[in-house]
Write a structure and sequence with these properties.
heterodimer; A: 1120 residues; mainly alpha; Leucine-rich Repeat Variant; 4 strands; 67% helix; globular; B: 152 residues; mainly beta; SH3 type barrels; OB fold (Dihydrolipoamide Acetyltransferase, E2P); 5-stranded antiparallel β-sheet; 11 strands; Rib_uL2_dom2 (chain B); hypusine (chain B); Trans_elong_IF5A_hypusine_site (chain B)
Chain lengths: 1120, 152
């Protein structure tokens, strides 16, 4: 087709040869030949190729050429706007007949031609030159033919139509505005989509009535089933902005919300019946996911399709169908997620009162079925976990069902209290059972016998169970609270039994070791199983008792409180306290042990685990212990302490008597427990410094103990606390082994502890011992006479580094009420400047100093003016020193990683937020700093996301707060942020783009105030207007984020430039109608603000008009 | 590795390495692997089984050299090389060696011009007549040029 001089046969011959070359294996043809062949196909875009293409389709036998011909037709139809009405229709008929007459076409050739038909139809709908009705008439005739091949073809055509008319991402590029795409979708979903659905149903009905399906038949069946699936297509609400459409269509969980006109088609009871029957028929084939997907969508049916009255019939009917489908069958692996999704959708979409309105027998068998499924999926999920399967289908299904339970049991409006208790018990029991080792549980039992994953390597990236399964555990915990009467005693007895066994095992090992040192035969399997059981039991206990995800404030969960209160009359407080107070002993021999408060008893079971662990540590059996279990214990204690220990009584509606006696204010119980927890922290830190997660959990427990003053008051009465403080200050082992975040957090805890109530004398003793000791050491080191010489010695370096960790922790503990005491940090800060010089070649130390300064300067909001200025001065000195040492430095690593440039994050210092504005000289402080930092940044460095974000934050900050300073910058320095802004708007992340756009307003306003005519800022803002115009009007970016204010200010500044941009845009429009619409829209946009000035009223009018402008013509300008 | 430490010979002030608990090592820090001072380029922990104790995997890179890997329990003590860095002014380049002026005014000529990018950079700046300072890193009595910057 490229050369008009060639006759059709020659053209075909040429194309066929080219196709042969293209499709040939690489060894057969040279590169040049291939390129030449490609060129032939690429250059075929002549005007009106219809006749030639028709001819090719009719004569050529080469598939590739056929596909190209179909594509050429499709593209030409799109390209040539003004086709005669008749010709477009005849083209469609030609293609359809063509395919019908050639049943043996290759599949991809056929699909391509049908795609061309679909595009023609959509294109035809633009000027109404094609009537969709006639097409559906033809299709239904094809379907009723009963010939599978023809039916397949009809299905392909329907599928092609569906994707052409569906979301913008699926459609072919037909160079029409988004407005057109949106409109045609809306029209399509009202009429044609339903037509397709009805046709599909007919086919499916016919097939499902048959007894046996041949292979060919079932493949047709599958195609229609997956077609029915696509009906889930998001029903597009009217009047949506383009970006909302995109957002809407990309949402994951599609709920079916058709319009009212679908009522008849969807609410017909035969529809549900059909899909359930279909699923029953094919559930063991690979079509099952399709039929389940259809049902899942139908389960989410909601919206105007329901008449007010009939909303109950549909779900009742659905549940009936579901129950009879599941009844008595063994659920396949591939069905689990589908069934769970169906149930989850039903419970999400239908209001709870609908569920209570269906016949009670039905609803109770539904809940029974849900319970049964949950337990069974839970068992399979636990197996998947043990086997370490990659594809955890049951886990997913289980999660979905547990989530549904959560919504159900929290609704006490529609269900009477206790309605779900028995079900909760069942689900809870089954969870516990399948996470305990045999014989008590089934954790390691598979069809093939006992398995274990003892030998498996687990990397640090693997999440802890408490995080990985947090949703699951939260749901199980919630169910446990619902059925507290059953679950709390169950957990207690299980834990008590396991810990006794663990104790026995450890004792046996110890005796063996004593008898014959070094020859112990460790039955690690038993220990491993016990650790595993205790691990899971503590997690469940923690989630049940203390981790309530519902509220923001930390309170004892109300169900637990009620439970404890209900039984408080039967409780003997003394026995409760006695058992709590002796975690070294078994609970059962204590007289009256069954008259204890059950919740306290459960706590004491965990305390006993903790005590057994500590005993083992003392007996030097740490090697036998599980760090995982250690982590669980401190994690539990932390959450428990937060929600039970000395809680704020003002926040609680009521507190049960046992709780108040055991953990309330001014009780021996709480004093004892604090001591016990502190002891635990010390014991744990003494041996687990090499287990970082465990150490950091432990230090977190310590912070929890002191972060509330009521608890801190008791903590500082313990001698252990003082020992810990001294030990840390003298940096003796094992605390000096802690990781640096660990050390910092520990310091934070010690500082917080210092604000507990103590008499003056104690206070005078505390601060020197805790804080000033480290300060003294620090000063001692750096004030040595020969520091300059010794500073590079390793011990000195280590000492400095270690001392720098401490102030970081102190700074983290700063609050409004203690800032006065902690301000001595300034001394550290001032000294750091000197250190920066000394250690300029030690990036580790430099980074640490910067980190400290960063933490310290965040405290600026607590400081008075003069102190704040002190802090700034120190920061700037530091910055200056840093810049001096690093200017022009090139680093050796070509494979640099972001963290190596951590020091450049020093920029953060310069964006201090509001605090900076209150003093006159703050602007100069910042600009001075910018002068120091900007030269250190390079375009390569902007490739690091954190650096990049920080850098742009800094720029935006300067533009917003000190726009008047910008034009005063020397030329070089001025260019740099301007280039950065442009780069940020055009080629950075949307977050950065947003920041840049925000800086435009103040810049433009600043420019407007100035009178000079050719300042660099004027040129810069003119350029920004163009960028902004492109983004906003041509919608190259999300319009929501564009600062309309900035745009207006720029328009005011550069009116001539703006008119020019509008003119250019208008003159590029060919369609007179669109031209007029655009021109009108632009006129209206500026109507209330001509000439535009920076008066507020005008500005607001413009911004309002801009919104209308976007809604009106935004879709026209964006073409796909 | 801890077994190999000889406590009798090294004297405290000048020892070229010091011990550190493995878990306290940091990425981008230094460690002795297979007897060579290395920069830690990768560090990860793992455990065997859910209830196992932490083990640390270290991957270290000799400065301009080979890669080494080691796995050890996180309680283990590792040798960490003492690292010193000095900036010297570059005087000239001869036969692939750098002539450097120390702070005390002495001239050192025992350092090789490094290979690769940095070496080319140094040579380029030197040939262009720019005054540059070379940062030299010393670990376990071996020295390497690691960075350059213009003289102040």
């Amino acid at each position: 087709m490229m050369a008009a001089a060639l006759g059709p046969p020659e053209v075909i011959a040429q194309l066929e040869n080219a196709a042969k070359v293209l499709m040939a294996p690489p060894s057969m043809v040279s590169n040049e030949q291939r390129q030449h062949a490609e060129h032939i196909f690429l250059s075929r875009k002549s005007k009106s190729p219809f006749a030639v293409c028709k001819h090719i389709l009719e004569t050529s036998k080469v598939d590739y050429v056929l596909v190209q011909a179909a594509t050429a037709i499709m593209e030409a139809v799109v390209r040539e706007i003004l086709l005669e009405k008749g010709s477009i229709e005849s083209l469609r008929t030609f293609l359809l007949t063509y395919v019908l007459q050639r049943p043996n076409l290759q599949k991809y050739v056929r699909e391509q031609i049908l795609l061309a038909v679909a595009v023609i139809v959509k294109r035809g709908s633009l000027d109404k030159s094609i009537d969709c009705k006639s097409i559906f008439h033809e299709v239904s005739q094809l379907i009723s033919s009963g010939n599978p091949t023809v039916q397949t073809l009809a299905c392909s055509l329907l599928t092609a139509l569906l994707s052409e008319f569906s979301s913008s991402s699926k459609t072919s590029n037909i160079r029409q505005s988004m407005e057109f795409h949106g409109n045609s979708k809306r029209v399509f979903q009202e009429e044609d989509l339903r037509q397709i659905f009805v046709l599909t149903l007919e086919v499916l009905q016919a097939f499902s009535r048959r007894e046996n399906l041949s292979a060919q038949m079932s493949s047709v069946f599958q195609r229609y089933l997956s077609l029915a699936n696509q009906v889930s297509w998001n029903f597009l609400p009217p009047n949506l902005d383009r970006h909302y459409i995109a957002m809407f269509e990309s949402s994951q969980n599609v709920l079916l919300r058709p319009t009212e006109s679908w009522r008849e088609a969807l609410l017909d009871s035969r529809v549900l019946e059909l899909f359930f029957t279909a699923h029953r028929k094919i559930r063991d084939s690979d079509m099952a996911p399709d039929s389940l997907q259809c049902l899942t969508q139908l389960a989410s049916l909601h919206g105007p399709v329901f008449p007010e009255a009939a909303q109950v019939d549909y779900p009742a009917h659905f549940i009936e169908g579901l129950l009879s489908t599941i009844h008595g069958i063994e659920i396949e692996d591939s069905e689990a997620v589908g069934i769970a999704s169906i149930i989850s959708n039903l419970l999400t979409v239908f209001p709870r009162n609908v569920l209570t309105a269906i016949p009670s027998e039905l609803s109770s068998s539904f809940v029974n079925c849900l319970t049964h499924l949950t337990c069974s999926f839970g068992r399979s999920a636990a197996l998947e976990e043990v086997l370490g399967k990659d594809d955890m289908v049951y886990m997913e299904a289980y999660d979905k069902l547990l989530e549904s339970w959560l919504t159900l049991v929290q609704d006490d409006k529609h269900f009477h209290k206790g309605f779900f208790t028995q079900h909760a018990v069942q689900v809870f029991n089954s969870y516990i059972q399948c996470h305990l080792a045999a014989p008590g549980g089934t954790r390691n039992l598979t069809a093939k016998g006992v398995t274990s994953r003892e030998e498996e390597e687990i990397s640090e990236l693997q999440e802890d169970d408490r995080d990985q399964f947090s949703d699951q555990l939260a749901s199980v915990g919630m169910l446990g609270r619902i059925a507290a009467e059953h679950c709390i005693p169950l957990l207690t007895s299980l834990l008590e039994e396991r810990v006794t066994r663990l104790h026995g095992q450890l004792q046996r090992h110890q005796q063996q070791l004593l008898a014959s040192p070094g020859s112990s035969t460790i039955a690690s399997k038993i220990l491993d199983e016990l650790h595993g059981d205790i691990h899971r039991l503590i997690l469940v206990t923690g989630f049940l008792l203390a981790v309530d995800t519902r509220g923001a404030t930390l309170l004892t969960p109300p169900e637990i409180m009620e439970y404890s209160m209900k039984h408080s009359s039967e409780v003997d407080s003394n026995t409760t306290l006695q058992i709590l107070g002796s975690p070294g002993e078994k609970a059962s021999p204590t007289p009256g042990y069954n008259r204890t408060d059950s919740v306290s008893r459960l706590l004491s079971a965990v305390l006993r685990v903790s005590e057994v662990e500590s005993q083992a540590v003392r007996a030097d059996l740490t090697d036998l212990l599980s760090p995982q279990m250690g982590k669980d214990i401190v994690w539990f204690l932390k959450h428990w302490a937060k929600t039970y220990l000395l809680v704020d009584e003002k926040l609680c509606d009521q507190i049960s008597l046992p709780f108040r006696t055991a953990f309330g204010a001014d009780t021996e119980g709480s004093q004892w427990i604090i001591g016990c927890l502190l002891q635990k922290v010390i014991s744990s830190l003494s041996v687990w410094s090499s287990e970082q997660d465990l150490a950091s959990d432990t230090v977190q427990l310590l912070v929890t103990l002191v972060e509330r003053r009521e608890r801190a008051n008791l903590v500082i009465q313990c001698e252990n606390w003082w020992n810990l403080a001294k030990q840390f200050a003298t940096r003796s082992p094992p605390l000096n082994f802690l990781s640096s975040p660990g050390q910092r957090t520990l310091m934070k805890a010690l500082v917080l502890g210092g604000f507990a109530q103590m008499d003056t004398e104690t206070k005078q003793q505390y601060w020197p011992e805790v804080l000033q000791l480290s300060q003294q050491r620090f000063l001692g080191v750096i004030n040595q006479e020969n520091f300059q010489q010794m500073c590079q010695q390793e011990e000195v370096k280590q000492e400095t580094t270690a001392t720098l960790e401490a102030p970081c922790g102190i700074a983290e503990a700063t609050q409004l009420d203690n800032v006065a005491i902690l301000f001595f940090l300034m001394d550290f800060l001032t000294n750091c400047v000197g250190l920066m010089e000394v250690y300029k070649n030690n990036p580790e130390t430099v980074n640490l100093i910067i980190e400290f300064v960063e933490v310290a300067h965040k405290q600026i909001r607590y400081l008075g003016e003069s102190k704040a200025m002190n802090l700034y001065e120190a920061c700037l000195n530091l910055l200056q020193e840093y810049s001096k040492n690093n200017w022009g430095r090139q680093r050796v690593d070509v494979t640099a990683e972001e963290e190596q440039y951590q020091d450049l994050l020093i920029m953060e210092l310069l964006t201090p937020g509001q605090a900076a504005c209150r003093s006159v000289s703050a602007a100069d402080v910042v600009l001075y700093g910018v002068n120091l930092i900007l030269p250190l940044m390079s375009q390569d460095l902007l490739k690091f996301p954190t650096l990049c974000n920080q850098y742009y934050k800094l720029i935006t900050f300067i533009c917003e707060i000190f726009p008047e300073k910008i034009p005063q910058l020397p030329e070089d320095l001025f260019k740099s942020p301007m280039c950065s802004l442009e780069l940020g708007m055009t080629s950075m992340s949307s977050e950065v783009c947003q920041l840049c756009l925000e800086s435009l307003t103040p810049l433009a306003e600043q420019r407007a105030k100035a009178q000079d005519t050719d300042s660099p800022l004027l040129l810069a803002t003119r350029h920004f207007l163009k960028l902004d115009f492109d983004m906003l009007v041509l919608q190259k970016h999300n319009t929501e984020m564009i600062s309309r204010e900035a745009f207006y200010t720029l328009v005011c500044l550069h009116q001539a430039q703006y008119s020019e941009l509008v003119e250019t845009l208008l003159s590029s429009q060919q369609d007179p109608v669109i031209y007029q619409r655009l021109a009108d829209a632009f006129n209206k946009l500026t109507a209330s603000s001509t000439p535009p000035t920076l008066v507020r009223k005008q500005k607001m009018a413009f911004i309002k008009n801009l919104g209308e402008f976007m809604a009106n013509v935004g879709g026209l300008l964006c073409v796909k | 590795m801890a077994d190999e430490i000889d406590f009798t010979t090294g004297d405290a002030g000048a020892s070229s390495t010091y011990p550190m608990q493995c878990s306290a090592l940091r990425k981008n820090g230094f460690v002795v692997l297979k007897g060579r001072p290395c920069k830690i380029v990768e560090m990860s922990t793992s455990k065997t089984g859910k209830h196992g104790h932490a083990k640390v995997t270290l991957v270290g890179m000799e400065i301009f050299g080979q890669k080494y890997e080691d796995i050890c329990p996180s309680t283990h003590n590792m040798d960490v090389p003492n690292i010193k860095r000095n900036d010297y002014q570059l005087i000239c380049i001869q036969d692939g060696y750098l002539s450097l002026l120390t702070e005390t005014g002495e001239v050192r000529e025992d350092l090789k011009l490094p290979e690769g990018e940095l070496g080319k950079e140094i040579e380029g700046k030197y040939n262009a007549g720019e005054d540059v300072q070379v940062s030299v890193m010393c670990a376990m009595s071996e020295e390497y040029a690691v960075a350059i910057k213009p003289c102040k």
